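Structure tokens please, single chain.
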Amino acid sequence: MTEAPPATPPPPAGPPTRASDDAGGQPSPATIATIADEVGVSVTTVSKVLNGKSDVAPQTRARVEASLDRHQYRRRARRPPIRTDQLDLVFHQFDSLWAMEIIKAVETVASAAGIGLHLSQLGGRHTPPDQWLDATLARRPLGVLFVLCHLSERHRDLLARQLIPFVVIDTDSATSASVPTVGSNNWNGGLIATRHLLQLGHRRIAIISGPSDVLCAQARTAGFRSAHDEAGLPVPADLIRHGDFYVDAGFAHGMALLDRPDRPTAIFAGSDMQALGVLRAARQLGLDVPGDLSVIGYDNVPVAAWTVPALTTVHQPLRDMAGTAAQMLLDLARGAELSTSRIDLVTELVIRESTAPPAPRLI
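Here you go.
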């Protein structure tokens, strides 16, 4: 009688296989549900991350992205993005003549390219809220121009994921070299305005700059200080004021500076609109411009040449800045490489009737 062969020992235990393994022993691709289960979030949250939605907490987004990378999740191939034939132009707020100059220049470039323009403002904020970003991503513009405002790193990443380029005009804060920016030399503008007043003989000069946390206002104030340093003159702290670039601030600070016995003989306003407020304050207090007070503005908006007296001002090439930024944005939208990411245009002093040497009794 033949003896039966010994039983074959069972194979050693190996790693457990996923229930979704196919017949070849290879794990099937991870699903959204797999990712959601591993991270401990809902399927909806994973879907929002995949679609670039902004309303996911940064820490949660990072965990989901890490899980997607770990599982080598195959993101669904995107269809070519359906874009609207328009540029988005975003202001922190745009109710001023200064903003109108920028709008006109961007519209000129967009119109020549057969592209529309969508305007929005942030109600005075300098960083867009998530709701704005969601609406922009849904609208899919060719690109976005930001004026005196900036994006958070997270928002920049979301726009990049959706292939929507952006350019910043006259930024309110320092930007990295990777952010395309067009501005002007604000420090030089503050310097040449103050030098002009010092050369006329003024020694008690006040400045009404813009918001203290806005980069261009800081630069103009720094130029104002540098001109005084050149002349070996101190700058009294009570002669440095910060407004908001609008007429009301110029009037309020103008009244406070001029309705005092040791009033300044000259005021450098950080914008033409603030200069208009200073002119109004001077008239209300019975002061002659430029006989009793010299006034300099900034921007050189068209109305500056029509005030009485005509306003001496620093010419900031607003239309050139905006036109250059719009063309840069169109180039980026077409896939072109920019030769430089930062352009600063020249500022120049335009001397008109609102500045003169101080009266001898005021020196």
